[in-house]
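Look over both lines before class:
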Amino acid sequence: PNDTREYGILELDVVAANNFNYEETIAIGYDIYGPDGKLIDYTVREVTIPGRSLDTLRIRADIYHSYKHKWGGNRGDAPLYSLMLYVKRNGLIYEYIPFKCGFGRTEYIDGKIVRFDEPVNLVRRRYNAAATKSETIAEITAIKREGANLLIVDYPQPEWFYSLCDKMGMFVIDRVNINAPKASTHRKVGGTPSNEPTLCNEYIERTKAMYFRSRNHSCIVGFMLGGQAGNGYNMYKAYEYLTSVESRRPVIYEASEGEWNNDVLELKTQK
């Protein structure tokens, strides 16, 4: 939502690839539907891409009438909009990319996670998705009845898990798939995988994979660097990377042992 909460701001960075040897002009467009299923905005833009190249088309649009659907609240509820992104070549639809989006703003201010400019009372629960969607829905519903509204996962979850949390109004702190308990307290260079510089790219790639998969989900309120993996050069670099691409939501590392690569010193129920 914009600062006055009168309308939504849609920002899209669409990366298009031209795999031909010659330049190609394509049209990229979208239709966006409100939670009630009504079309509320659409647009089409053209971009010419040289052969064997990538280009990024940036779209920014003010989505009016979105104020009709109540935004957020302390429970994490955020109306979901259906957005259909499409690519046209020679006037014909070439590719459809449907996804859900929600208008929201999550920030970490003065030691509190803030949603729509108001601190959120977080009651956490450690939880990983069940084997099926139906089981997961039942378990999350039970967790909500018990008063929890924040799920902390132990590793990246199935994509559908984040979509469920968007829909069910559950906050999530996502976690990078890094666990290296062997000699995790050893601080000598190479004494633990997290302090072995030759593995730095592996740590960064896992961090990127987690972030770019879940960053656009409205349920995500923070990111965790990993489990019990010790601390060292690789964790410092992973933290620096994540904070370079994420300016609002906190980056958490519970095994930082009091060092600087942890925005939240103690992850506990927020009051």
